[in-house]
Amino acid sequence: MQRLNGVDLFRFIAAFFILILHTNYGPLEDTLGVYAKLSARWAVPFFFLCSGYFLQKKLEKSEHFTFDVIQKNVISLISILLVSSLIYGIIDTIRGNYEFQIPHVLVGAYFHLWYIGAMILAFITIWYLHEVKLQFILPYLSILLLGGLFLSDNYDFLFQKDYSFEVYRFMQAIPFIYIGMRVCKIKTIDHIKTAGWLTLIGGIVFLILEVKLFKWVMPLLDLVHEQSIGISIIAIGAFLVSLSIDIDTNFFTKFGQKYSLFSYLYHPLLYMGFSVLFPIFLPENGFSKLLYPILGYSLILGIAYVLDTKAKPVFNFLNGKIK
After folding, report:
1. Whole-structure pTM over 0.90, yes or no?
2. Residues 100 and 202 in one domain
3. Same domain flag for 234 and 256
4. Is the CB of residue 36 less than 8 Å from the CB of residue 286?
């Protein structure tokens, strides 16, 4: 399958924004940290969109959507979930923080691994609906799940309710992967390019209006603002723009292709180390925490590169290739 360097470039960018999202900004958490994280929340749905796009690419080479189409993806994702959960489970056990719970089987043993479980569920769900000839309900299911996502995270105040967000957050992979599949069917690159920039700019404007609305209605609501309509529009716009960018392979595209997953999986390990070392060498304030994403991303990419080039079996194992 031909590489899309624009998508790989945006993978590189999105992986950095994941670190921004997962940083605890200390005294700045409720001020600068809120808006730093808000600016980064497009990254997770962007990766779901990528997965959907490339799933559709594989489907175009098959006459039918059999389990063989997703088998390698599902096996790889299960392996990634097992390996990463084992590593985090051991570390948290040593730290005295780990207690096994049944949901860990699906969402992993650390806070960010839900993404992997969500991908597994989405691939199997989409395959199953095709297998039983119910694929026609996918657009309606996607609308329903996105509606639940936006309602439970932000708009439930309209009904004076507090709906559970966790279920819809976990299931958001289904609609975003489906959208990625639909985008793959657009063959005119000019249409994608125009739509991409308009969608991206429109999403930013919409998000600004959402934040103003939420701050007006309920001043603290933006502190738990995880997946709004504007964020989702930005993710779709960024994905469309990435498809329309025609660039040669370079450092950023190579690292985006090869190491964005490794960065997502293991940057929390660096953050654990930072939380111990930073107070020793730097004053404990919010501005020192601003170094976390920059230093963390540089280090995690360096570690990934060294393992990939000098210890390939270790790198493969950490990425779920356990054969």
Report:
1. yes
2. yes
3. no
4. no
Task: Copy the structure tokens of residue 296.
Answer: 């963390």
What the block records as the tokens of 274 is 């930072």
Both 232 and 309 in a single domain?
A: no
Q: What are the contacts of 55-61 at 24+ separation with CB within 8 A?
A: 55/123, 55/126, 55/177, 55/180, 55/181, 56/180, 56/181, 56/182, 56/184, 56/185, 57/1, 57/184, 58/1, 59/181, 60/184
**Domain hosting residue 160, numbered range:** 47-246
Tokens 């994403």 -> residue = 293
Measure Cα distances from 271 to 85, 108, 215, 292, 315 in Å.
17, 18, 31, 7, 20
Q: Is the pLDDT of residue 222 over 50?
A: no
Q: How far apart are CA 18 and CA 43, in angstroms?
A: 6
Regarding whether 109 and 241 lie in a shared domain, the answer is: yes
User: Domain check: are 3 and 55 in the same one?
Assistant: no
Backbone phi and psi for residue 250, each to the nearest 5 degrees, phi listed first: -145, -175
Task: Give me the residue label for tokens 């989405």.
Answer: 122
Shared domain check, 153 and 127 = yes
Average pLDDT, the chain: 90
